[in-house]
Design a protein that fits this description.
Length: 466
């Protein structure tokens, strides 16, 4: 049996990197039941085709096999679960969707086609369309008469199937891996519960929403009713979890939005003309700040370089006009090290960042912000740990794996009051998000305002030094 996969596109030969098979070097792999050959019948910059040829020894199969097959059977010549096992073994890294050098190609939807030769189609032939089309493929197949000399035998159950579509290579391989045995139905190994795991793993992203998911599940599990029920129940649970997760995501999204809008509102009410976003993350606040005409200077820092890159992408930094770029300074830095670049801003925003700092580093942060940078206003937000009781799925844990703490309202107020007093700021507290009578709001915020007297005192000290 032979499986071919073709890619038509720019630099089509690069598909070889995803398969991790060199187009100029045919390879042989020893399998338990025979040999597999990999080679490229066609290599060009416009179109490249890779072939997987299985050479199964029928005698070996009957002698050493599981006793599932006779000497004389179709197994050595058809596309079957042997093919799936070979795909996973030989094209495993392409199936995983990871590539060291060509991740973009692995992530891209490509013009791919696959031809599966001699596929036993034990089902109604229309099932081929009903199974492959919802996954985005065009389906065509070649049929044959069983024997030209005996027309009464009718058409053969074996077909050559071609599917074509714009899909990721890893998805194509997963689809083939699962769907060959769906049409063939004769597994060459004993089917147990681990087959359910395999099906759900390889079908993770597409099976639960497939209109023929029951048919696929039942046939893949070779009609074992108990295993099919197990798999279908797990798919249903996954569905429920998705709905739940979507609800949580929606809530999170709206809380994020409310938080950012509130912070912008406070910044504007303070009359700040220059703002620094400390721990700016992927630039959610930044993208709102740059739209505010009243803000003339913006700084954004984060400790993580890749996150800053994402922030730049988010605000389409490269496409900003010169005057917009001029008022913007994005740089890597840490909130726990004194940095002169943090100075000179009217307002500093520290949105959902302090809970990422180790408690032992909090003191350093306090000095960096309130003693050295000393903005006129500082807006600090953090989760209210008491509110977590409302998130059933947290099961007593924190909202994010990188959070070091999530303070109760009393803890946050104590900290903020102490810091304000020590560094001569006054402080006001805000609730962000829908408030619960007993537990408060999901996000708590504090606005620190520098006490003018202290500012004047410092100014006086500075001037007298001159
Ligand atoms: N303010 C953003 C991001 C919050 S996530 C928003 O509201 O969307 C917390 C961010 O703090 C992360 O991007 C993380 O990289 C950053 N961070 C953690 N420790 C930091 C440190 N010591 N100095 C600067 N940034 C830090």
């Amino acid at each position: 049996m032979i499986l071919t996969i073709s890619y038509a596109g720019e630099n089509a030969q690069n598909i070889g990197y995803l398969f991790r098979k060199n187009p100029s070097r045919p390879q042989v792999f020893e399998l338990n039941y025979g040999k597999a050959y990999v080679f490229y019948p066609e290599v060009s910059a416009q179109k490249t085709t890779i072939a997987l040829l299985l050479d199964i020894d029928p005698v070996d199969l009957a002698r050493n096999g599981s006793g599932l097959f006779d000497y004389v059977c179709d197994r050595p010549y058809v596309s079957s679960s042997f093919t799936s096992v070979a795909i996973a073994r030989i094209f495993g890294s392409a199936m995983s969707g990871r590539s060291d050098e060509f991740q973009d190609l692995a992530d891209a939807k490509l013009d791919l086609s696959a031809t599966i030769v001699t596929l036993p189609c034990k089902s109604d032939i229309s099932m081929l369309n009903r199974v492959f089309e919802p996954l985005g493929y065009r389906v065509s197949f070649e049929r044959f008469v069983t024997d030209e000399r005996f027309s009464e035998w009718g058409e053969s159950a074996y077909i050559n199937l071609t599917i074509e579509g714009k899909v990721r290579l890893s998805d194509l391989l997963r689809h083939i891996y699962v769907l060959i045995p769906v049409f063939d139905r004769k597994k060459h190994y004993w089917i147990g519960e681990d087959e359910v795991d395999k099906l759900l793993r390889q079908g993770e992203e597409w099976l639960k929403d497939h209109p023929e998911r029951e048919f696929i599940t039942k046939c893949y599990l070779a009609k074992s009713r108990s295993l099919a029920n197990l798999a279908l129940n797990r798919l249903r649970e996954a569905d429920d979890e998705t709905v739940e997760q979507e609800e949580i995501n929606k809530e999170k999204l709206s809380l994020n939005r409310q938080r950012l809008e509130r912070v912008i509102d406070i910044v504007k009410k303070c009359g700040a003309k220059s703002v620094i976003d400390l721990g700016c993350g992927e630039g959610n606040l930044l993208s709102l700040l740059i739209k505010e005409p009243s803000i003339e200077k913006i700084g954004a820092i984060d400790v993580s370089y890749p996150i800053l890159e994402r922030a730049k992408e988010k605000i389409k930094y490269d496409r900003l006009c010169d005057s917009a770029k001029e008022k913007l300074l994005i740089f890597q830095g840490s909130l726990t090290y004194k940095d002169r670049r943090f100075e000179g801003y009217d307002a500093a925003c520290v949105v959902e960042v302090i809970e990422h700092l180790d408690l032992s580093r909090l003191n350093a942060f306090e000095r960096v912000l309130f003693e050295f940078a000393r903005p006129r206003y500082a807006i600090v937000t953090t989760p209210n740990g008491e509110y977590n009781e409302k998130y059933e799925n947290l099961k007593g844990g924190l909202r994010h794996s990188d959070h070091r703490f999530e303070w109760a309202r009393g803890e946050f107020r104590d900290w903020a009051n102490r810091v304000a007093q020590k560094h001569s700021y006054s402080v006001q507290f805000f609730d962000i998000g829908e408030s619960d009578e007993k537990l408060g709001s999901p996000t708590q915020a504090a606005l620190f305002s520098e006490q003018t007297l202290e500012r004047d005192r410092r100014k006086y000290k500075e001037e007298s030094r001159l």
